[in-house]
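so ive been stuck on this for like two days lol. basically i have the seq below and the ligand is 3-methyl-2-oxobutanoic acid, smiles is in there too. i just want the complex predicted, nothing fancy, no docking runs or whatever. if the output looks off dont worry ill sanity check it later, just need somthing to start from for the group meeting slides
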Amino acid sequence: MISYPISTPLSSATPIKRLTVPAIKAMKGTVPIVCLTAYTAPVARIVDEVTDLILVGDSVGMVLYGTDTTIGVSVEMMCAHGQAVVRASQRSCVVVDMPFGSYQKSPQQAFKTAVRILKATGAAAVKLEGGEEMADTVNFLTHRGVPVCGHVGLMPQSVQVMGGFKVTGRDRETAEKVCRDATAIAEAGAFAIVLEGVIEPVAAEITAQIAIPTIGIGASSACDGQVLVSDDIFGLFEGFKPKFVKRYAHIAEEMREAARQYAEEVRRREFPDQNHVFTPKT
Ligand SMILES: Nc1nc(=O)c2c([nH]1)NC[C@@H]1CN(c3ccc(C(=O)N[C@@H](CCC(=O)O)C(=O)O)cc3)CN21
Ligand SMILES: CC(C)C(=O)C(=O)O
Ligand SMILES: [Mg+2]
């Protein structure tokens, strides 16, 4: 494996300090936390100008590799994409998802995977999916120098158990379950928690009850912050569009048009023209 120096800031007269894990945690009750996903250097460079937190999500599998779920994502993939994002960002706190199967077996397995990801990428923290059943693991990691972001509600890595990507909290049973899950993860020492696909009153209740910031995705403005997949807000990913996604641009349309024009010019022998060709020395 090729290894690169990690986290070397770009030269600057006044080096920009990255937001730290405690700084993110302290944002609860002050200003909303702005989070987007990124998987690549060019996108990380762009979103880093506006985000507090960048999540290198295991959604990379669905968004960049074209899979139907996040199940097939590997630790190697998360390390490679995490490296790219850390290298290309300088002010946001970077969090990397632990992929399915890399942490659920035991706290020890989770620790080994988390350390591998943090060492390979230079990221500040890892994120893992799960509620009460993962509380011991979150406690184990946070007491050993690994900051953890939780993720409850709609947990995409459990898609095969749930039978789809389903909103939760609509009945009393699931509402109480997601509240217990969030509380358990917060009390176990997570610095923040993603609430995904949780109905508004339940997200509001959790946000009021726990001491750490809630970062919502399809969980209403009651949360302490918001996260979306960057390719979704750019209109770059067109595979599907959950109700909670707002497209702020239509980049895929622009790319389609650019590719179409290029193809047309090549076929007409209009490209390359004199401005895009090397000529002999005069
Ligand atoms: N591009 C992308 N965006 C995401 O937000 C995302 C991913 N990929 N991959 C990982 C997970 C999967 N996600 C999903 C995928 C589908 C729905 C969806 O179809 N939701 C239904 C809700 C159905 C219900 O009411 O229970 C919807 O209509 O929004 C939601 C979240 C969120 N994450
Ligand atoms: C959508 C966020 C929360 C995520 O887990 C991912 O991108 O994988
Ligand atoms: Mg994820």
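The pocket of 5,10-methenyl-6,7,8-trihydrofolic acid (ligand 1) is lined by residues 59, 62-63, 70, 154, 156, 165-167, 197, 229, 231-232, 237, 240, 242-243 (CB under 6 Å). The CA atoms of residues 49 and 91 lie 8 Å apart.
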